[in-house]
Amino acid sequence: MCGRFSLAVTDWAALLPQFGFDSMDFYYAPRYNIAPTTEVPVVFFAERQRTLQTMRWGLIPPWSDSFTSRYATHLARTESVLEKRLYSRLVGRQRAVLLADGFYEWQTGSRQPYRIRVQGEEVFALAAVYDVWRGADGGERASCSILTRPANAWMAHIHDRMPAVLRASQVDAWLRPDCTDASEMQQFALHYDMPELYAYPVSGRIGNVRVDDAECFVPLKDDASRMGGQ
DNA sequence: CCAGACGTTGTT
DNA sequence: GTCTGG
DNA sequence: CCAGACGTTGTT
DNA sequence: GTCTGG
Fold it and tell me: ipTM of the predicted structure?
């Protein structure tokens, strides 16, 4: 689940204030089909400063020999995150959110991909944890994992798992730099009020990671498969 | 003690 | 680095 | 998540 | 069949 998402924003000036920023210091080309291992915009606190920068999607721990992984680390199960060597110490102190304007889910059984969005929000957030890896040259590289949880009743029509989707207004409650209690934040990620979502079927061409164009967002001509408003 | 893993999803 | 399995 | 590789030697 | 790369 949630092995792909999108962030095709061009009007960052309108978006940044929503997430607590007035500027950004990197170039970003709109992305319609984002796959694991690529660099994605992430919001987090570093030195008490709210920060927006890109990170590798797919967490690499500091002790890794290289900035790659043989394991699937782009997702972390919220229910068991505190028991995992890779993630447990991060929940208390290295929380983050990825920015997204949709995520993709392949329906169980039919294999039909859907684009899923938040009702009333152009851009929303995905709860995540991050870590920092230091290369032999001393350079630092950050990476992240999206938290997943069991599907809610709506999502269950498509899939049995889903990412922890946050409205922009809920981002502060996940990042809150004052809280270092991992259990408390785990409970938040499992039980906060999930925003209303809607979904529509899209072309299977997004299965190919090299496909990354506006056509990815075009609904299939199949109104019956649409789920939710907007 | 040391060696080896460190992760998720989906499908059968 | 730290935990688990043997 | 899906797609694509999965291998070696030697030559340019 | 299974792993890696995007």
Answer: 0.93
